[in-house]
């Protein structure tokens, strides 16, 4: 069957890094054998930010879709396993809580487990919620195992993700993509060409060469060379709710044990991350420059490293928010060109993955398909907004003191988040929308961990008497803790997985 002249045959990705090569790998894999070409244009003279090294469990789906073997991935990217995030000092100094990947306890009588925990708390039980988290009990012991077993096994509720070197991941995906026929063009872009109808038609390189295409993916980072500089897609600034606008990042030698979790520590005017890799530790301080100078932030971070720094610190500036149209005309923004939300919940790489997955699902036959553009933009708006609200929750619900924390604790918040908080405080219910990447256990972990105490609970929790309820909770705790004690260490499991050859 002949193809119409408007069919999309030549896809051009502008910009490399994690976003560019994830897009290239996924598109080349999806369209293998379909007669479409994928070209990626990047310049070695332009550095890669590469601070997004922690992920959420959705990354497993991306790698699996490409057929990437986990052992190869771990070896090539110096990755470690991640069972969740430890939050240190976010409620108040000296207190910690854990956001686990996986469920709390076991749902009973058709309702969520935490309602039976709330019942026990009201009747004098004092065990923290994390007591019933398989992920946290494994993480705090420095242990790891892959999810396994049936519904009765504590390990079946376990979720995990990875910490990895973003630059190594980009290189790994580059080799994968080039093996599928993706063509890389080296060069700095000096001009963007547009057709008479306003579509992007090509990019001109510094050496005079032109890379033409039918459909373009903008992975040029904050600058948004195609989506903003050329197509003026617009940007929604969310810094009124998320006032951190700067970060300083530096790798260091690892001294602490190889822990299977990310750590986020509340600081004077923001927070500090710790991401353990096989060969180093990633560190960074995300802060509000209105409350802390760049030099003060850098000095504070460098003084808190667990080992010698392995490179000079890098400073970043950003405006929290999202592109109003992530897909405009024949161009889709992926990665930082589509918006930026601080990596407090490790969503940076996920938002890249999500955009690519949605694009593939809605990929047009012709660049004039406005209905697909509208659907994509609506889905991305909902995703960005949901993540935004989850991040705001961390700042709004706190008892920390200081000018920065006083500002975020007392600031007005979006109505939809205010309603969600009010519902939880009144009834103990967590309402999860269809496109919410964070499940009930995630919202619950942060809300409870930062001090929200529901006044009510689901009435079904009262069908079980006090002693029977406490007995069930004790049995669940015992099962989880015995399982956690028997798991191999994170280091041993990492080595065993990497030693496994692809079948």
Helices and strands, with pairings:
Elements: E1 10-14, H1 17-30, E2 37-42, H2 58-66, H3 70-77, E3 80-82, E4 84-88, E5 96-100, H4 114-122, H5 134-140, E6 161-163, H6 166-179, E7 183-186, E8 189-194, E9 200-205, E10 210-212, E11 215-218, E12 235-237, E13 246-252, E14 262-267, E15 270-276, E16 281-287, H7 294-303, E17 314-317, E18 321-323, E19 327-328, E20 331-333, E21 339-340, H8 348-361, H9 370-396, H10 403-410, H11 415-427, H12 440-449, H13 466-486, H14 490-499
Parallel strand pairs: 1-2, 1-11, 2-7, 4-14, 11-20
Antiparallel strand pairs: 3-6, 4-5, 8-9, 9-10, 12-18, 13-16, 13-17, 14-15, 15-16, 18-21, 19-20
Helix pairs in contact: 1-6, 1-8, 3-14, 4-13, 8-9
Key attributes of the depicted protein:
503 residues; alpha+beta; FAD/NAD(P)-binding domain; 3 domains; six-stranded mixed β-sheet; 14 helices; 21 strands; 35% helix; disordered N terminus
Radius of gyration: 24 Å
In the sheet with the most strands, the strands line up as: 5-4-14-15-16-13-17
β-sheet strand percentage: 15-25%
What sort of overall outline do the alpha carbons produce when their principal axes are compared? Answer: globular
Question: Number of folding domains?
Answer: 3
The residue fraction in helices comes out at 25-40%
Describe the fold and architecture.
- With 503 residues, this protein is of the alpha+beta class.
- It folds into three domains: 183 residues, FAD/NAD(P)-binding domain, CATH 3.50.50; 161 residues, no CATH class; 72 residues, no CATH class.
- 35% of the residues lie in helices and 19% in strands.
- The protein contains 14 helices and 21 strands.
- Strands 5-4-14-15-16-13-17 form a seven-stranded mixed beta sheet.
- The N terminus is likely disordered.
């Amino acid at each position: 069957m002949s193809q119409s002249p408007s069919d999309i045959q030549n896809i051009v990705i502008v910009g490399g890094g994690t976003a560019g090569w994830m897009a290239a790998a996924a598109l080349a894999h999806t369209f293998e054998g379909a007669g479409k070409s994928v070209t990626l244009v990047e310049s070695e003279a332009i550095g890669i930010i590469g601070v997004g090294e922690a992920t959420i469990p959705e990354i497993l789906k991306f790698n699996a879709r490409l057929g990437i073997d986990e052992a190869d991935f771990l070896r090539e990217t110096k990755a470690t396993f991640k069972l969740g995030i430890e939050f240190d000092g976010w409620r108040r100094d000296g207190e910690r809580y854990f956001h686990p990947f996986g469920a709390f306890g076991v749902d009973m009588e058709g309702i969520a487990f935490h309602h039976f925990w709330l019942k026990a708390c009201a009747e004098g039980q004092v065990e923290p919620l994390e007591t019933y988290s398989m992920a946290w009990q494994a993480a705090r012991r420095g242990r790891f195992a892959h999810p396994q077993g049936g519904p009765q096994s504590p390990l079946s509720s376990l979720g995990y993700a990875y910490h990895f070197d973003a630059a190594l991941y980009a290189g790994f995906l580059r080799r994968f993509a080039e093996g599928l026929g993706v063509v890389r063009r080296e060069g700095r872009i000096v001009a963007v060409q547009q057709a008479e109808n306003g579509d992007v038609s090509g990019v001109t390189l510094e050496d005079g060469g032109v890379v033409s295409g039918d459909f373009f993916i903008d992975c040029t980072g904050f600058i948004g060379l195609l989506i903003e500089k050329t197509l003026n897609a617009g940007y929604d600034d969310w810094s009124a709710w998320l006032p951190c606008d700067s970060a300083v990042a530096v790798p260091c030698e690892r001294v602490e044990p190889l822990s299977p979790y990310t750590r986020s520590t509340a600081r004077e005017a923001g927070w500090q991350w710790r991401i353990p890799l096989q060969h180093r530790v990633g560190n960074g301080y995300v802060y509000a420059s209105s409350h802390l100078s760049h030099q003060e932030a850098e000095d504070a971070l460098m003084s808190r490293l667990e080992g010698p720094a392995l490179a000079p610190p890098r400073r970043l500036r950003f405006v929290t928010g999202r592109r109003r149209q992530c897909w405009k005309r024949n161009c889709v923004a992926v990665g930082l060109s589509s918006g930026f939300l601080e990596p407090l919940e490790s969503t940076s790489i996920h938002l890249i993955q999500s955009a690519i997955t949605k694009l593939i699902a809605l990929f047009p036959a012709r660049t004039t398909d406005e209905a697909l553009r509208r659907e994509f933009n609506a889905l991305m708006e909902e995703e960005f907004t949901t993540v935004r609200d989850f991040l705001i929750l961390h700042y709004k619900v706190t008892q920390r003191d200081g000018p920065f924390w006083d500002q975020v604790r007392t600031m007005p918040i979006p109505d939809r988040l205010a309603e969600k908080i009010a519902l939880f405080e009144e009834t103990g219910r967590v309402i999860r929308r269809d496109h919410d990447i964070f499940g009930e256990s995630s919202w619950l972990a942060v809300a409870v961990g930062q001090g929200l105490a529901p006044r009510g609970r689901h009435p079904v929790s009262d069908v079980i008497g006090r002693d029977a309820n406490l007995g069930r909770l004790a049995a669940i705790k015992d099962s989880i803790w015995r399982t956690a004690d028997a798991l191999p260490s994170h280091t041993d499991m990492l080595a065993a997985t990497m030693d496994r050859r692809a079948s």
